[in-house]
C-alpha cells in the first residue's frame, strides 16, 4: 500500500485538528479552575488532595479529582504526590 500526497495532507490536518482540540480542552480546564476558585484555593492552602480541594471550593470530589487529572495529562503542573492526587 502506498501513501500519496493526499494522505500526507490528510494526516497533517488530522494532527493539527487533534492538537487544537486538546488545546481547547486545556483552556476550558484553566477557565473552570479559575472560575471555581481552584487555583486560588491551591495557592492559599498549598498541596491538597481532591477531597480537600472539593471541600474548599464547594464542588463534588469527583469533579475536583477530574480537574486535578487534566494538568497532569497536559503536563502543565507537577504533583507533590501523584498517587494521592495531591497538586
Helical percentage: over 70%
How are helices and strands ordered from N to C?
HHHH
- Spans where pLDDT lies below 50 across 5 or more residues: none
Tell me the structural class: mainly alpha
Radius of gyration over alpha carbons?
18 Å
**Distance between the first and last residues' Cα:** 47 Å
Q: How would a crystallographer describe the biggest sheet?
A: none
Number of strands: 0
Strand content: under 5%
Number of helices: 4
Describe the structure in your own words.
The protein has about 90 residues and is mainly alpha-helical. The protein is about 70% helix and about 0% strand. It contains 4 helices and no strands. The protein has helices at about 5-35, 40-45, 50-55, 60-75. Helix 3 crosses helix 4. The chain is rod-shaped. The mean pLDDT is about 85.
What is this structure, in a nutshell?
By secondary structure, the chain is mostly helical.
What descriptive keywords fit this protein?
87 residues, mainly alpha, 4 helices
Helix and strand arrangement:
Blueprint: H1 5-35, H2 38-45, H3 50-57, H4 61-74
Helix pairs in contact: 3-4
Amino acid at each position: 500500500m502506498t501513501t500519496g500526497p493526499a494522505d500526507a495532507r490528510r494526516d497533517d490536518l488530522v494532527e493539527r485538528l487533534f492538537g487544537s482540540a486538546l488545546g481547547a480542552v486545556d483552556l476550558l480546564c484553566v477557565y473552570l479552575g479559575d472560575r471555581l476558585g481552584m487555583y486560588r484555593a491551591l495557592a492559599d492552602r498549598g498541596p491538597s488532595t481532591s477531597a480537600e480541594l472539593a471541600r474548599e471550593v464547594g464542588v463534588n470530589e469527583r469533579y475536583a479529582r477530574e480537574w486535578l487529572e487534566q494538568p497532569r495529562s497536559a503536563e502543565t503542573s507537577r504533583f507533590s504526590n501523584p498517587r494521592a492526587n495531591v497538586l
